[in-house]
Amino acid sequence: MNDAKKRILDLAARYVCPGRVRTFEALGIDLVIGRREGYRIWDIEGRELLDYHLNGGVYNLGHRHPELLASLHRALETLDIGNHHFPSVARAELGEVLARLTPGDLQFSIFASGGGEAIDVAIKTARRATQRRKIVSIQKGYHGHTGLALAAGDERFSKAFLSEGPSDQFAQVPFNDLEAMTAALCKDDVAAVLLETIPATSGFPLPQPDYLCGVKALCAQHGSLYIADEVQTGLGRTGRLWGVECYGVEPDILVTGKGLSGGLYPIAATVISPRVAGWLEDDGWGHVSTFGGAEIGCRVAQKVLEICASPAVLEGVQRTSTYLGSGLEEIQRRYADWCVEIRRQGVIFGLRFAHPMGAMLMSRALYESGVWAMFAGHDPSVLQFKAGLLVDRAFCDETLERFEAGLRRCLAMLQ
User: Fold this and answer.
1) Where does residue 297 rank: exposed (0-12), middle (13-18), buried (19+ CB within 10 A)?
2) Residue 262, by phi and psi: left (phi above 0), alpha (psi -120 to 50) or beta?
3) How far is 135 from 207, CA to CA, in rounded Å?
4) DSSP string spanning 92-136?
5) Is 38 helix (H, G, I), strand (E, B) or coil?
6) For the chain, which domains are there?
7) I need a labelling partner for 51 at 20 to 30 A (CA). Which of 154, 285, 350, 384 fits?
8) Of 381, 125, 380, 131, the residue nearest 255 (C-alpha)
9) CA 239 to chain centroid
10) Are 383 and 373 in contact (CB under 8 A)?
11) CB-based burial label for 281 (10 Å; 0-12, 13-18, 19+)
């Protein structure tokens, strides 16, 4: 480790994130990102890594995508963040695009600076529309670290801050369990069910074919709303623009973020149907966000949606899914005792290993082999393996070569 990297790690440990620095140090990972371009990042010491973390999907289109940079530069010539009290050209036009591209009758967009804030807006909207307080989510779910979003997620993050939701206001049930969902909704006291389409922090377990439609039907039966958390599964990652479209679900509220920013300016959105949008008519200041829907961010987000919704891009995602998935399955066959499951929907991959901490071990081994991928926070046996929307076959071939080298390195460490 050179002096420049040591200095940054020391400063981060002293002033910013000591727990993270210690955790990665214990894993043997000393990454400090310097240069970044496309789907490659470089440590400040110059070592190249293929990026299969993508910061949760922020970099769906790669780091510093040229068209997104051009949109940002053009916006900066005349715009700034704007004034959140007044209508703006950029916000209005982005709202129209989101209404056109989201499923069902979603129409109105409330903009936020991040996914957690957007989830908070979704929960508030559901409570206002139904005049109920209770929110049902899944065990080991994750929806952000802000107030209501934190309470709706797993207690791993909420309990430490004394932020667990009261049991009469927040309930969690197992994923893929319609009987448990039925029991949770049967008293007709639930404002909304909040679901990640494919739960990321749980390691991307795939919904059973009838699960999401079944949840939507239960919501309709019991007067509850369906909130689709598409922060990580939206914007083309599943091969459809929105993950729920793969399962035939039209939500009452959809939340998008992360990749909407293009990795260049923070922005998220809560998109809601007219039947739950009454507060927008009743009180124009019911929710305000100084930086939500910043005008320069809106221009970047418009370009993101244009690219992600392109039929050519979505077809490319399906080709990558098939090609990269086939390559990973071939490797799995050679190491079936170690890599025990591949979960795949589009370019979302969850790779489960035989050891309960297997994905943490693989993160280190892959890091040493030139690939950066993160373990799932709620299940460290599963590696979140997130390919970009625009990767080509040569990049996939390079990935598979480095992945197998990392896998062999991991097995050698375990001997």
Assistant:
1) buried
2) left
3) 20
4) HHHHHHHHHHSSTT--EEEEESSHHHHHHHHHHHHHHHHT--EEE
5) strand
6) 31-62+335-414 (3.90.1150.10), 66-308 (3.40.640.10)
7) 154
8) 125
9) 15
10) yes
11) exposed
pLDDT for the residue 160 = 83
Give long-range contacts, CB 8 A cutoff, 24+ apart: 152-159: 152/119, 152/123, 152/194, 154/201, 154/378, 156/377, 156/378
- Residues 36, 103: Cα–Cα separation, whole Å: 34
Contact 285, 84 (CB under 8 A): no
**Cα–Cα nearest to 367, from 20, 27, 1:** 27
- pLDDT at position 178 is 97
Query: Are 197 and 103 within 8 A, CB to CB?
Result: no
Contact predicate 61/304, CB 8 Å: yes
Looking at this protein, which amino acid is placed at residue 270? Answer: T
Tens digit of each residue's pLDDT (9 = 90 or more) over 347-392 = 999 999 999 999 999 999 999 999 999 999 999 999 999 999 999 9
CA distances, 38 to each of 54, 74, 76, 279 (Å): 10, 21, 22, 41
Low-confidence ranges of the chain (pLDDT < 70): none
Q: What is the pTM of this model?
A: 0.95
Burial class for 11, CB neighbours closer than 10 Å (0-12, 13-18, 19+):
exposed
Burial 358-389 (b: 16+ CB within 10 A, else e): bbbbbbbbbbbbbbbbbbbbbbbbbbbbbbbb
Q: Which residues pair with 383 in a beta bridge?
A: 351, 375
Quickly count: other Cβ atoms within 10 Å of residue 107's Cβ.
Answer: 18
Which residue is associated with the tokens 């809601």? Answer: 272
Residue holding tokens 């591949």? 342
Cβ atoms < 10 Å from Cβ of 85:
9
The amino acid at 228: A
